[in-house]
Amino acid sequence: MKGRVYLIGALVCLLLGYSPIALAANIQYSTGDTGPAVEQIQSGLKAAGYFGGQVDGRFTTMTRQAVMDFQKAAGLKADGIVEAKTYKAITGKGIPAKSTELAKPSPNRNSDKIIHTALSYRGVKYRFGGATPSGFDCSGFVMYVYNQYGIKLPRTADKQFEIGSPIKSKKDLKPGDLVFFETYEKGASHVGIYQGENRFIHASSSRGVTVSPLSDAYFAPRYLGARRVL
Q1: DSSP 200
Q2: Which end of the chain is more exposed for a tag (fewer CB within 10 A), N or C?
């Protein structure tokens, strides 16, 4: 009887044009996805020493980078996308099916591109008044990165702080938001791009383009607010 049930199930799968193995082959997790499966991915990466962020079930750009590092080390295709083979290698388990609860698309894919572009300039030296890869100041860096995606920003931090939608709380920050600080003068005098995981990318006068935590001893008490322009 059981054999007949299995045979009927297999025939139905064939008639519909799929099988459990084929379905698994089509399942993948990437930037913007959320849920328990992403938590499993992050936990596996953390245990293996590739992920230093919070295990929160959100597939952010930081999670994607950790996946890529793992894939490179494991000899897998390093594209930051977790398909069945990568999921098995990270977690030791079969990849679970996705549902609307497990996979919420990123509301703005431009944010991923902006973060990727901003990070590509890490190490570029600081230059007061600079707005090109030969040297950036904070607002020149932000303006240059966003301009590559057709988003025109004012030249200075104080003027950039006047545009977009204000973000009321740090917990509401999303990758790609602009974060502002009151540093050498009153009002917005320093700006960076929120990366996610409580970190932001900015042109530092002492380190050039770099990534810092919002909890940094210098920046935390000088945090002024954030704006969303995407």
Answers
A1: E
A2: N
With beta carbons less than 8 A apart as the criterion, state whether 90 and 97 touch.
no
Q: Which residues are annotated as catalytic?
A: 138, 190, 202
What distance in Å separates the CA atoms of residue 101 and residue 85, rounded to the nearest whole number? 22
In the block, which residue shows the tokens 């199930």?
9
Q: Where are the domains of the chain?
A: 16-91, 110-228
pTM: 0.57
pLDDT per residue as tens digits for the range 2-48: 445 444 444 444 444 444 444 456 899 998 888 899 999 999 999 99
Q: Which fold has domain 16-91?
A: Muramoyl-pentapeptide Carboxypeptidase; domain 1 (1.10.101)
32: left (phi over 0), alpha (psi -120 to 50) or beta: left
DSSP, res 34: B
Task: Render pLDDT for 80-113 as a digit per residue (tens, 0 to 9).
Answer: 999 999 999 999 999 998 754 433 444 456 788 9
28: phi then psi, degrees, rounded to nearest 5: -155, 155
- In tens, the pLDDT along 107-165 reads 456 788 999 999 999 999 999 999 999 999 999 999 999 999 888 999 999 999 999 99
202: amino acid identity, one letter = H
Q: Which residues pair with 213 in a beta bridge?
A: 199
Query: Which CATH architecture group holds 110-228?
Result: Alpha-Beta Complex (3.90)
